[in-house]
Design goal:
The protein has 98 residues and is α+β, with helices and mostly antiparallel strands. The protein is 41% helix and 19% strand. It has three helices and four strands; from the N terminus they run βββααβα. It has a four-stranded antiparallel β-sheet with strand order 3-2-1-4. Helix 1 crosses helix 2. The protein is globular and about 35 Å long. The chain starts with a strand and ends with a helix.
């Protein structure tokens, strides 16, 4: 089943959804940041976003943690103010990282 991940900077702050619902930060499994999600640079907040997206996509916290640094640098750090990614997009990126 395909999912759609969307990020946006709004007047109220940053919003990240998966299929229209808020993407869980997954700080219960791994905490990179106490400040929530961010993107367009390399750091703790983009790391948290990369990790949360990978956990949601893969359903595997161990694999998500292993792939997070490369995914954050190659994808999340390069997002524009508004972005969207499908599961197929993430699969393509992960194929190139493996």
């Amino acid at each position: 089943m395909s999912k759609l991940y969307v990020g946006d900077r709004t007047i109220d702050g940053i919003v990240v959804t998966v299929d229209g619902e808020p993407l869980p930060e997954r700080t219960d499994a791994k905490r990179y940041s106490r400040n929530g999600f961010e993107w367009s640079y390399e750091g703790p907040e983009p790391s948290q976003l990369a990790y949360a997206m990978l956990v949601d996509h893969l359903g595997d916290t161990v694999q998500a943690e292993r792939l997070q640094p490369q995914f954050m640098r190659s994808v999340v750090a390069n997002f524009q103010n508004e972005w969207e990614m499908t599961t197929a997009d993430i699969d393509r990126v992960l194929q190139s990282l493996r």
